[in-house]
Write a structure and sequence with these properties.
single chain; mainly alpha; 81% helix
């Protein structure tokens, strides 16, 4: 009898303990449910892109770009692919402010290339900053190759571009190599490289404008005009395309038609001395 009473007492004392454990589990469950879910904006944006919602992806990335360097970098790449160079440059700038090391070098390298395509004089200084952030990086090397070609140093530019191509730089590296070959006067090699770059990236501003330039310089300006018109229609922020279109029209004896393109280029790029000189040239 005493044993039964003892067992009953033990059972009754266990009930509150079990009840307490249940309450604790319920509390933990509620806390877990209330905890904010951390979503990776880059993965979220990629999912939206895969679903065909580019605008939704941009909205997600824009909401995170101030504090998330990877999101800002992804936004820059997406904006640039749509020909929106000004906002792409802003996104790359935001990315470079928070990223470090190789990622910072990529952001600055991409920014330099976009600035160069946009006709911004800051492209060279940005290329220097990219190399400082990541001396051996692919995008800093591409940016510096373009800078050296612009400076009239083709041998250095070719060596840098070939290094970027060998490192897997793809179409941007091949376009940089083409520009370097063009600056050296090897038009046949440049034409082949530009075409290869376009095959890898049909939206490439530098490759399309570069090929148009080579066609104009080799007496085929009429072939260049349609590809430039298509590029301008798709990417209206490409100052380089307007400048080359003006030159292509001048080469065909249509200076008056060229003036509109030259004026647009100058208006879009106030610091671009080349655009201003082009306007003056057309007006003469």
């Amino acid at each position: 009898m005493k044993r039964c009473a003892w067992l009953i007492l033990v059972a009754l004392s266990a009930v509150p303990a079990a009840s307490d454990d249940k309450k604790k589990d319920e509390k933990k469950g509620k806390e877990a449910a209330q905890a904010p879910v951390v979503v990776d904006p880059v993965k979220d944006a990629e999912a939206k892109l895969a679903a065909g919602d580019a605008d939704g992806a941009i909205k997600v990335l824009e909401g995170a770009m101030a504090t998330n360097g990877a999101a800002a970098l992804k936004l820059g790449v997406l904006r640039e692919s749509r020909g929106e160079l000004d906002v792409a440059v802003d996104a790359y700038k935001a990315a470079s402010a928070t990223l470090t090391g190789a990622a910072k070098g990529e952001a600055l390298g991409r920014m330099s290339v976009a600035q160069d395509d946009r006709g911004m004089s800051e492209a060279g200084a940005t290329a220097d900053a990219a190399v400082a952030a990541d001396p051996e990086g692919v995008w800093p090397t591409i940016a510096m190759a373009r800078r050296r070609a612009n400076e009239g140093k083709p041998d250095e530019a070719i060596a840098l571009a070939q290094k970027a191509v060998g490192a897997g730089g793809g179409a941007p590296a091949t376009a940089a190599l083409a520009r370097a070959q063009e600056s050296k006067g090897d038009m046949a090699a440049a034409e082949a490289s530009y075409k290869q770059a376009i095959a890898g990236d049909a939206k490439s501003i530098s490759a399309t404008v570069g090929l148009a330039t080579v066609l104009r310089k080799t007496g085929r300006a009429a072939e260049a005009e349609p590809m430039l018109a298509k590029l301008i229609d798709a990417q209206p922020g490409a100052v380089a395309a307007y400048k080359e279109m003006a030159r292509v029209k001048i080469a065909q004896g249509r200076a008056q038609d060229a003036l509109a393109d030259a004026n647009i280029a100058a208006a879009m790029s106030e610091g671009d001395a080349d655009a201003k000189e082009l306007v003056a040239e057309v007006r003469v």
